[in-house]
Amino acid sequence: MKDFELSRRRFVIAGVAIAVIVVYVIRLFFLQILSDDYKRNADSNAFLKKVEFPSRGNISDRNGKLLVYNQPSYDIMVVMNEEKGRLDTTEFCRTLNITEDYFRRRMRDIKDKTKNPGYSKYTQQLFMSQLSDQEFSVFQEKSYRFPGFYIQKRSIRQYEYPYAGLLLGDVAEVSPSDIKTDSYYQPGDYIGKVGIERSYEEDLRGTKGVQMLLRDAHGRIQGSYQNGELDTQPIPGKDLTLSIDIELQALGERLMEGKLGAIVAIEPSTGEVLCMVSSPSYDPHVMIGRQRGKNHAALSRDPLKPLLNRAIMGQYPPGSTFKTSQALTFLTEHIIDQNTAYPCYRGFIHAGMKVGCHGHGSPLSLVPAIGTSCNGFFCWGLYHMLTNKKYGTLTNAMNTWRDYMVSMGFGYKLGIDLPGEKRGMIPNGDFYDHAFKGSWNALGVISISIGQGEVTLTPLQIANLAATIANRGFFYTPHVVKRIQDQPMDATYTTPRYTKASKEAYQLVVEGMRRAVTGGTCRRANRSDYAVCGKTGTAQNRGRDHSAFMGFAPMENPQIAVAVYVENGGFGATYGVPIGALIMEQYIKGELSPSSAAQASSIQHQHISYGKTDR
Questions:
Q1: Which of 18-27, 408-417, 530-539 shows the lowest mean pLDDT across its residues?
Q2: Residue 592: which of 582, 602, 601 has the closest Cα?
Q3: DSSP structure class, residue 447
Q4: Which comes out higher in pLDDT, residue 96 or 133?
Q5: Is residue 573 very low, low, confident or very high in pLDDT (cuts 50, 70, 90)?
Q6: DSSP 3-state assignment of 81?
Q7: In the chain, what is the greatest distance between 2 CA atoms, to the nearest angstrom?
């Protein structure tokens, strides 16, 4: 019995010993094989992996004028495992002209993984960005006294012109969501935030390089490891050539001073955007340096919303510019022909419904109806389409109308190569069935025929309508990048998109738009040296009407299509027509005549009072 007890204790002790050994083996396996904590610690003592940032691609306009380039900048990086509280905080803060409170707060933020998800105490973390040359020189002289802190040379954006801020966009430090979305980025990296900088980020940013530096036992840099054999060189970002003409952009921004609205000009034969003005805007230089956050916050609080790109985000009633799309639809659907005439007794009057119009001859056929912008004609056209028995039901007729509008680029995003584009609004039969609980008729929606009611478009879509008419039935997806260095353009921007309307219908609409310039609502755009085609729009609004214009020139072989939209600008002829005419002249002739330059100066100094607004 005694031998049995002894034997059992021996087995228990042996089992405990084996268990302890197994635990140690598992722990050693985890530490040496599965975990890289010790390897990282050892590597951080022996090496410093210094990231080499690539130069970001330059951006030029269509004529080769440099718009955006790079200038040197310096960041201060910190490796927490090296700093370890050995820093003379007072001297460090005095050198950088910061407070000790700021220092402590910044160090806490770096270690906070909710704010800095990529944090590691073994790798360089951004402490302060974008030091000036003077700040860099002062810090560099004393850097040996600040263990764990390093200078990282990189570049920041610089702008040649004070224009196109919303279009070009800007570059700023990555957010936690940027880091989570793309493993390329680490805390302290920069990324395009809006505009071209955002939509072409992957082309512009390039590829990072890494320099392996060897440390001694005291952590001092001894030079490149293995003579740099393991280093990788950064690959610069690709240069972009925009379709924008910066001189045309500058003129557009001057003409829109003191006004809310947008100008968009397109080359019809390519879909290239020649200028894109949103007013108010801002000088892109304010988005450079450590004051960017403060300036951005001020712009975001501005009630006139200078950060809103109205050219692609503003959703407005198109007013009478929309009548051209109605003419194309009615003609192609054989609701009317070129000889169809409708009465206009100061407007459309039927079954107790009246939509007013200005005084002109009556009845009118299509071409003079476009020339005089007759509301009655287009209301009658839509009424006869929606009540035509060939569609079977009102909903089917409405959906047929909707299909034409969608084919012309309305109701959905066009797909421009800029972030934030809005789709506007084109109603269909189901929309009205739901809105009116199945009880609606043609008269109840008649205002959409003249670009009012539920219809909204962006200025980009209105300009694209002008380009489509200029092309007599097709358009290219509008785009602001003309060329990417060493890379073909996406087929999206080189493939024509055809509408449902007939070429014959487009030809009649072109004649109507020409009539508007020679003897109708667009007379202020008429010229003797090239033929302009245009269409005004006076869009009703809760306050003063919006002033709109769209047109193209020359009539044959068009070079430019343009849309102008001035909020609360009154009649289309007040601001829309003269601004559009000046934009066309500048592009076609290369400069403004002395009389046109004087007119441009006058318009530039005509400001519209908006007062307090929540736009």
A1: 18-27
A2: 582
A3: G
A4: 96
A5: very high
A6: helix
A7: 128
d(CA 268, CA 471): 6
Query: Among candidates 106, 113, 148, 143, which has minimal Cα distance to 127?
Result: 106
In sequence order, which residues have a C-beta less than 8 Å from that of residue 241 and are 6 or more positions away?
Answer: 59, 60, 61, 62, 64, 481, 482, 483, 484
Rounded to an integer, what distance in angstroms lies between the CA atom of residue 528 and that of residue 526?
7
Contact between residue 185 and residue 174 where contact means Cβ atoms under 8 Å apart? yes
- Nearby residues of 257 by Cβ (< 8 Å), 6 or more positions away: 279, 604, 605, 607
Count Cα neighbours of 470 within 13 Å in the Cβ-side half-sphere. 34
CB of 311 closer than 8 Å to CB of 275: no
Mean pLDDT within 451-471: 98
The HSE-up count of residue 296 (CA atoms within 13 Å, CB side) is 15
β-partners of residue 261 are: 279, 566
Beta-carbon contacts of 14 under 8 Å, excluding residues fewer than 6 positions away, are: none
CB 445 within 8 A of CB 426: no
Q: What is the mean pLDDT of residues 584-595?
A: 98
Look at residues 403, 383, 270 and name the one whose alpha carbon lies nearest to residue 325: 403
Q: Which helix (H) or strand (E) holds 128?
A: strand 125-131
CB 480 within 8 A of CB 274: no
pLDDT for the residue numbered 32:
55
Distance between CA 213 and CA 471 in Å, rounded? 60
* Spatial distance between the Cα atoms of 222 and 121, rounded to a whole number of angstroms: 21
Cis ω on the peptide bond leading into residue 488 (within 30° of 0)? no
* Structural tokens at position 200: 């072409």
Q: Are 517 and 529 in contact (CB under 8 A)?
A: no
Task: For CA atoms 416, 419, 422, 423, give the dihedral sign.
Answer: positive
The confidence score (pLDDT) of residue 229 equals 76
Task: Give one DSSP letter per residue of 26-55, joined into a string.
Answer: HHHHIIIII--HHHHHHHHHHEEEEEEPPP
| Residues pairing with 153 in the sheet | 74
Start-end of H helices in 206-274? 246-255
Per DSSP, the three-state class of 187 is coil
Mean predicted confidence (pLDDT) in 56-73: 96
Amino acid at 491: A
Tell me, what's the pLDDT at 135? 87
What pLDDT shows up at residue 250? 98
Over residues 110-169, the pLDDT tens digits come to 998 888 877 888 788 889 988 888 888 999 999 889 988 988 888 889 999 999 999 999
Q: Check: CB of residue 584 under 8 Å from CB of residue 470.
A: no
Give the integer Cα–Cα distance in Å for 160 and 58: 11
**Strand 240-242 versus strand 59-60 pairing type:** parallel
Is 584:467 a contact under the CB 8 Å cutoff?
no
Q: What do you get for the CA distance between the two ends of the chain, in Å? A: 96
pLDDT digits (tens, 9 = 90+) for 370-417: 999 999 999 999 999 999 999 999 999 999 999 999 999 999 999 999
Q: What does the alpha-carbon distance between residue 397 and residue 501 come to, in Å, rounded to a whole number? A: 16
Residue 351 above 80 pLDDT? yes
Question: pLDDT at residue 38 above 80?
Answer: no
Give dist(CA 151, CA 575) in Å, integer: 53
Look at the pTM and tell me if it is higher than 0.90. no
- Which of 26-35, 135-144, 322-331 has maximum average pLDDT? 322-331
